[in-house]
Design brief:
heterodimer, A: about 375 residues, alpha+beta, 10 helices, B: mainly alpha, about 80% helix
Chain lengths: ~375, ~270
């Protein structure tokens, strides 16, 4: 007996594509997702970012229907999908290791979704759409190949085409680029972004690679231990992290830890273990400081100025001046990365752009230098 | 060095008698004591002997039926076992291995006693229930009892083979199929079954071989039927003839071929 696959109606315009209302998922005593609420708008490129075990994959599997929430509600297109099995949900997924069917060739893999529909579309229509998809992922002529004859990048494209053929409301991507080498990953990031803009489908990506999330997403949800830590655009997360965890996870940063000694309108003063004080602007998304609590000052490596030994703050036009010694230098093309050993603050990472390097000349390892930054460039953060 | 000699001796002890049987099946002379020249005349003789052909037919019917039943039921059982958890599953797993390890003679005797007891209980009941003017059917040992006993024994092999295949299968394939709108039944037909097929086929071939070669269990429960191994056993009592050697060699060849095919099926990587 053939079941009539009745998809849930997902065309209630105005409602977000995906909505979580206080969703909790427990596996026995383990809480994988703890009271998470969020919504993903139509046409958005949304990423779940976090280390393994943070709940990002669980979130994706709740949307796909492979898991059911212990508590709370999950909606797709404004309709609750609690109890709806995966094959009745208008979403498709690109699996981490692609999960291509090994006993079918490339065309049969891509056309699989169409063949499950009822009524089944005519063969000629299936072929036409498969060819269209093959062309879209630049794999024309590969239809008759077997899966194991393809390279990792080609398998990735087939998985993508297979998941897109049913024109889902939402495309779910579970670490889709993790198995590719660095160069290919970069290319695929750009292709995915272009593809998303072309097809206009909502993409939801799960990744532990912050660079990947930052470069592709419209919005990122940073997770830790089953909770949402911060949600926002890549720029918001980079410039205004809500706490130390986010600042550490997104991009590189130097941290000075201590406790708050003074708060005035614009700045927070933090005293470190050696009794030195540093000033930073509180992050816009921080919840609020009080005197005596643990806090950190974070400075991005590209906002630190390096100068020759004996320069003072006035010479460098900075608010803070420190002495240090170059410990390591890495040439990165557009930038040069220095690791500078300082007295009392440990090693500090500095990113110096090419035009400055070529003007004043590169520093050699072992050389004594001065470094500093403006207070406005420093962020005061709570220790999550 | 001593160990190596020892193992050579063990292998010689195992395989030389088999080699001699194969060799003497091609003996042109009548006597097993001296080799007089190459000939295939005993094969022709064996294959034109009506008793041999009848025994062969019986063996084939039994082996085919037992293999079909055990691969069907074994597959179903393996899939069901995959879904249960905890002590119940551990118990079933244990029982399956016990079934493989129990000596054939124990299965033979136990099945015989069980069947005869049940027949003795049921036959009067059937006789009482049947209308007086017709002769009531009488349950007795025969094809059905051998097939049942062989199925019971070979099914555990099939279950073990398919359980291993399921364990090695990528769970994401099932999820990908569900995700692409296939109902659970269609997922089973289009993904699970093709993935398990090599193991099912291997299970079928192994079951066939075990059933075809089995002497002990058949001897106890075959009733009036003569299978090929039973025929060989009874003709040996009249002296070893080159004809028996020829039959043995043919059975050996067929069994080895099936075993090798099964091994190849099991070794092939998924889907290839």
């Amino acid at each position: 007996m053939e079941l009539n696959v009745s998809m849930i109606n997902s065309d209630k315009s105005g409602s977000p594509d995906i909505q979580f209302d206080q969703v909790t998922k427990r596996y026995g005593d383990v809480v994988a997702l703890d009271n998470v609420s969020l919504s993903v708008e139509r046409g958005e490129f949304f990423s779940f970012l976090g280390p393994s075990g943070c709940g990002k994959t669980t979130s994706l599997r709740l949307i796909a229907g492979f898991e059911q929430p212990t508590q709370g509600n999950v909606q797709i297109g404004g309709v609750s999908v609690i109890g709806v099995p995966p094959h009745r949900r208008p979403v498709n997924m690109v699996f981490q290791h692609y999960a291509l069917f090994p006993h079918m060739n490339v065309s049969d893999n891509i056309g699989y979704g169409l063949r499950q529909r009822s009524p089944k579309p005519p063969k000629s229509e299936t072929y036409r759409q498969v060819d269209e998809l093959l062309e879209m992922v630049q794999m024309s002529g590969y239809g008759k190949r077997r899966i194991w004859e393809l390279s990792g990048g080609q398998q990735q494209r087939v998985a993508l085409a297979r998941a897109l053929i049913n024109k889902p409301t939402v495309l779910l991507l579970d670490e889709p680029l993790a198995a590719l080498d660095r160069k290919l990953r970069r290319d695929m990031q750009i292709e995915l972004q272009t593809l998303q803009r072309d097809v206009g489908i909502t993409f939801i990506l799960v990744t532990h690679d912050q660079e990947e999330a930052l470069s592709m997403s419209d919005r990122i949800c940073i997770m830790r231990e089953g909770c949402v830590v911060q949600m926002g655009s890549p720029r918001d997360l980079y410039d205004q992290p809500s706490n130390l965890y986010v600042a550490d996870f997104v991009g590189k940063s130097n941290f000075i830890t201590g406790s708050v000694t003074n708060i005035n309108g614009r700045y927070v003063t933090v005293e470190d273990a050696n009794g030195r004080t540093f000033v930073g602007a509180p992050s816009a998304s921080a919840s609020g400081f009080s005197v005596g609590v643990a806090a950190s000052i974070a400075i991005r490596p590209e906002l630190i100025v390096v100068s020759s030994h004996n320069s003072c703050a006035v010479d460098m036009a900075t608010d803070v001046a420190l002495n240090g010694r170059i410990k390591n230098r890495i040439f990165l093309g557009e930038h040069t990365e220095y690791l500078i050993e300082t007295d009392g603050l440990g090693d500090i990472l500095v990113l110096s752009p090419k035009h400055i390097e070529s003007k004043r000349g590169a520093f050699e390892p072992g050389e004594a230098v001065a470094l500093g930054w403006k207070n406005a460039a420093a962020l005061a953060l709570e220790d999550s | 060095m001593a160990m190596r000699l020892y193992s050579v001796a063990v292998y010689l002890f195992l395989y030389v008698p088999i080699g001699i049987i194969v060799l003497f099946s091609f003996n042109s002379g009548r006597h097993a004591s001296s080799f007089e020249g190459l000939s295939v005349k005993w094969y022709g003789k064996a294959l034109s002997n009506p008793f041999v052909l009848e025994a062969l037919t019986t063996s084939l019917i039994i082996a085919l039926s037992a293999a079909l039943l055990s691969s069907l039921m074994g597959t179903a059982a393996a899939l069901a076992l995959q879904r249960i958890r905890g002590p119940l599953r551990a118990m079933f797993d244990g029982l399956i291995y016990v079934a493989i390890m129990i000596p054939g003679i124990v299965i033979g005797i136990a099945t015989l006693i069980a069947l005869v007891t049940v027949f003795d209980l049921l036959n009067p009941v059937l006789g009482a229930l049947w209308p007086a003017d017709a002769a009531p059917p009488k349950l007795s040992l025969g094809y059905a009892s051998v097939i049942a006993a062989h199925t019971l024994f070979t099914m555990s092999l099939v279950i073990v083979l398919i359980r291993a295949r399921i364990a090695g299968m990528d769970r994401a394939l099932i999820e990908a199929s569900e995700d692409l709108y296939a109902s659970p039944w269609r997922t089973f037909l289009q993904i699970t079954l093709p993935q398990l097929f090599p193991a099912i086929l291997a299970g079928f071939l192994l079951s066939f071989t075990f059933s075809f070669d089995d002497f002990i269990i058949s001897f106890f429960v075959a009733g009036p039927n003569t299978t090929l191994p039973i025929y060989v056993f009874s003709s040996i009592r009249r002296g070893i003839t080159p004809e028996v050697n020829a039959i043995g060699t043919m059975v050996l060849g067929a069994s080895l071929t099936l075993l090798i095919i099964a091994q190849v099926l099991l070794r092939r990587r998924e889907g290839r």
